[in-house]
Each structure stands twice: as structure tokens, then as C-alpha cells.
Amino acid sequence: MTGVQTCALPISRQAGSVKFKFQREIGDAIQLNETLGDMTRRIRGTRARGFKDGIMAASTRDAEGLIRTSVVNAANGARVESMQANADVLKGIQWVSTLDGNTTPICRALDGLMWDLDYKPIGHSKAYPGNTAHWGCRSGQAPVVKKFSNMPKNKRDKIPEGTRASIDGQVSASTTYDAWLKKKDKTNPSFVKQTLGPKKYEIWKEQGLSMRDMTDQYSNPLTVVELEKRYT
After folding, report:
1. Could you read off the pLDDT of 170-204 as tens digits, one per residue?
2. Apex CA 186: angle with CA 182 and CA 188, to 5°?
């Protein structure tokens, strides 16, 4: 993935031997379909042995966070590799964020954006963030199918539109975080105000901003001061 930003996982700060052991343990755990608790014991060790049988010293919270992020990163990487292998029917990659109040400003802005299979932006200027956008990232990627006229004749089967999860239940797969949040603002403005923060909510609403407008080229959140300078 030359020239593409990737999320710097905290494990990268560990010694080489620890990184190797961590990757091996998580790989084995995924193959065995282990639970988060099982994986945590692999990494941190067990209470019965005074946590001396793990591969690194870490709190339960830190170990779980590292495991979740690493598993999502690996799953997303495998998904993108699969997309690359099907370049004959795919136009590119679309970012899919979770539709709830815990999604970070970074992933709110990325939701729905597309890149071609060389990771070049389609219709925007945001850099492709890699398999995950940040520590604790819950987002994923979805394939963007070519127009039927551009697909091989033997692969033009009708592909129905799917759905995606939100805190309000299943919604259309084409629903972006922007569209979902604007609809939410009509029914529960206090939720949106809490999600964005009072001052950012005020700027967002008065200026009619998108989530993309509220971040820089690399999807880093703009501060209130930076938003005021740009839009008020």
C-alpha cells in the first residue's frame, strides 16, 4: 500500500520480539475464534499465575483496546486485499463508519467517502487513512461496484442494495453519517449537540457544514477556533 497512511497501533512502540509474539498470538486466537477474554489472557496473562504468563505488562483495559484495534485492522486489511483481487468488478473502496454518538470526528468525516483501488480520492481530497483511521477505530471498508455496463458480461448479476446498522436500527446502506446526523437533529437535537459539542454544533448548524468540512485533508478534527476562522 505504497504512499498510503496507516494507523500507528500502540504495539508498534514495543520491542520487536514482543510485536512478533503479539501478532502470532492474535493470529492464532482469530483462527480459533476465541473471545476477547481469551485473547486478553493470551496477552496479559492470568490472575492465577500473577499475570506472569502473558507476553506484555498491560492493564485489562489497555490489552482489550489493543486487541480490538489489532483485530479490526487485520480484518479490514483482509477485506481490502479481497477487493484488490476483484478489480475487474470493483470501482474502488468506500469508508463505512458506525452511526452512533461514539464515532470520532475523524470517522464521521470519512464516512461514505470513496477511493479508487490505487487509493486516490474519488470526488474529494481526503487522503486514504489505511485499514484503520485511529486507535480504537471501529470503521470498515465496503466495495464500490462498477456500473453494470463496465463489468464483464458474466458478472452483471443484479446486486440489491444492502443495509447498515445504526443506533436506530437498520438503515439504507447509502445513508451517510452526514445524512443520518441531520435527520437525528430534527428528532433529537440534544443528542447531536452532545455528539458534536455545543459550540461546534452551533457552527455546524448555522453554517450548514458537513462532517468533512469540520476536518482537515487528513481528517483531523478542526478546533472551534479553526472552524470560526474558516466559516464565520
Report:
1. 888 889 999 999 999 999 999 999 999 999 999 99
2. 100
- Measured CA to CA, the distance from residue 162 to residue 154 in angstroms comes to 22
CA distance 39 to 60: 11
d(CA 73, CA 75): 6
Cα–Cα dist 130/128, whole Å: 6
How far apart CA 109 and CA 103 sit, in angstroms, is: 10
Nearest partner of 221 among 94, 130, 110, judged by Cα: 110
Centre a 10 Å sphere on the Cβ of residue 57 and count the other Cβ atoms it contains: 11
pTM of the model: 0.76
Here the cell at position 71 is 483485530
Round to whole Å and give the CA distance between 217 and 195: 22
- Among 214, 56, 41, 70, residue whose Cα is nearest residue 135: 70
Rounded to whole angstroms, the Cα distance separating 193 from 96 reads: 22
Q: Rounded CA gap, 83 and 144, in Å?
A: 9
Which residues, in sequence order, are bridge partners of residue 94?
114, 142
H or E stretch including 171? strand 171-172
8 Å CB contact between 130 and 6 = yes
